[in-house]
Amino acid sequence: MARLLIIEDETDIRELISFNLEMSGYEVEKARDGEEGLAMARSSDFDLVILDLMLPGMDGLKVCSQLKRDPETKSVPVIMLTARSEDDDVVEGLELGADDYITKPFSPRILIARVKAALRRTEAGRAGSEEQNRIALHGLVIDSARHEVLLDGEAIVLSATEFAILRFLAGNPGWVFSRNQIIDSVKGEDYPVTARSVDVQVLGIRKKLGERGSIIETVRGIGYRMKGE
After folding, report:
1. What ranges in the chain are assigned the alpha helix state H?
2. 172, 211, 203, 49: which is closest to 122 by C-alpha?
3. What pTM, to 2 d.p., does this model score?
4. Are β-strands 100-103 and 176-178 bridged in parallel, bridged antiparallel, or unpaired?
């Protein structure tokens, strides 16, 4: 049974949402303001948060921002509720990481449908992430969860940057990427990569792969690609 958290200051709306969600088979917890909701989200596991943007004190946008910054809650889908129809509010919420929004007044049936859709997307994303954790080609097995690379069953020791670059190229075999695209693929992991150092990192990967190093091809004037199988 999915556990949902409602953060809504208006009692009538909070109870209406709670009633409909419980009737649909969900376990529901409720918070009356942003501070209480944020504390509850951090202290317990929830599968989805329904968040009103117009809250007293800490507003919904700030709550959303905090939830998406916290490693413990960033993957929890957030559906925003707003009485305002201005695009700026909706866009800001989505840019902060919210998954969907509903404008008040709303139909409970639409709310339930949106909740089910968000939960399905999250489940599909988890399944996809598990599949993407492991890449196998050319005798290589790259396991992101274990941060491990095997070549014909033997472990290959790579630096963090080398691993990230190899994983990116292997995850897109046959596609050519510029040095800047390769940098963009790993920059979010705080790796000190520059355009020139990409060449050095690729050279290091090739050496460690030995005869199999040729699977990473240089495309003159563009960048690099992993051979397709």
Report:
1. 11-23, 34-43, 60-69, 87-95, 108-132, 160-170, 179-186, 195-209
2. 49
3. 0.58
4. unpaired
